[in-house]
Design goal:
The protein has helices spanning about 15-25, 70-75, 105-125, 145-155, 165-170, 180-190, 230-235, 245-255, 310-320, 320-335, 370-375, 400-419; strands at about 5-10, 30-35, 45-50, 50-55, 60, 95, 100, 175, 195, 200-205, 210-215, 220, 225, 240, 260, 260-270, 280-285, 290-295, 300-310, 345-350, 360, 385. The protein folds into two domains: about 5-40 and about 190-255 and about 360-419, FAD/NAD(P)-binding domain (3-Layer(bba) Sandwich); about 90-170 and about 260-355, Alpha-Beta Complex (Polyamine Oxidase, Chain A, domain 2). The two termini are about 25 Å apart. Helices cover about 30% and strands about 20% of the residues. The protein contains twelve helices and 22 strands. It is globular. It is α/β, with parallel strands linked by helices.
Length: about 425
Amino acid sequence: MTTQPDVAVIGAGTAGLAATKELTRLGVSSTVIEASHRIGGRAYSEEIMPDVWFDLGCSWLGTGVGNPFGGIGDDLGIELGRFAADAYKPETHRFVRDGTALTPDEWAACRRYFVDCHNAIAAAAGRDRDVAISDVIDLENTYAAPFLENVATAWGLDVDEVSTADFASSTGELGYPAVRGYGNLVAAWGADVEVTLNARVERIDWSGTGVSIQTSKGTVTARRALCTVSTGILGSGELSFSPPLPDWKQEAVHGLPMGTENKMGVAFDTDVFGAGGRGHYTVWNRDGETAKIDASAMGLDVAAVFVGGRRAIWLERQGPQACHDFAVDRVAEVFGNDIRKHVVRSITTAWSTDPWTRGSWACARPGQAHQREHLARSIGDRLFFAGEATMVGGQGTCHGAYFSGIRAAREIADRLHRD
């Protein structure tokens, strides 16, 4: 761990790795400090079956501002999932209610409701009416349940907690997966960055002309610090600042709480999806259970089940077995009870209690969408901030975190060169 670099980068997630690479390109020295045992942050893949990978964090190379990881994967010779992209487009999304697929007329009515909701949200945002999504959509509609689940899994909070302006500013579609894991792709890309692991930052002293960073492995002094940790960590009090962060920065942190989307990967010993069954689903039933399912369009015998918001946190607290049962039940609603005898393993996430993030991604509260710009602002030209929470347009995404790191690195280099 370099003890007196130009810049100390806190966090080796996508934002921290991108910033470090850009600082190196710009001729600025840096050291990277990471609290956990690995790089990648919320980009993380685990093997669910031999040579079959499940993404616990970011799953799709989303579209929008131009995802750099498509080109990065190509440069590294890593197989992506472009061939499966059509399965994740809105026009091919599938809906299953009480175990039965919607008829074509029902599907069209459901899609119209989704479009109406999006239009109502955009109209509110266009009138500078930054309110809760629940204030502007028809919650009594027949197809409200799948829309509410789509919001909860996309934002990690329920519709009464999500800002219309934040929702409207988000760009792009799901895109496509990485065949061997988005987390593995990020790890391969970041492998050339030297990182001090298992070094939890406990205190950042920015009272002098530079910064002093106290970690579990010693103290680092630097001319500047770049903080890429989540708002969950910033708001938890586990990382202290001396002097404390100014009120406007703390307001930004608390205006952008972490949402939770949890995933359950279920592996099977055979193809339980059948001919034409692979694709992206939203399911709901009369008991109030809702979820999204990716019945692997990449040809793998794995289903990923997604649930967000309060329901995700409740399930997480019940433990892995409850999450497993929930996931298997949802897959059985679509593909029949016979799938149960073919289950060989599951992986479940627990993002709301993850000690390194305290959630999945930052979500603006109603009336707080403007806080993303405030979170991105530096303090005293010594403390800089990056991460998906600082982005407008790429919030909640891996590529958003990447671009935030590039932006912050250039800001820091500009300040240092001016000095």
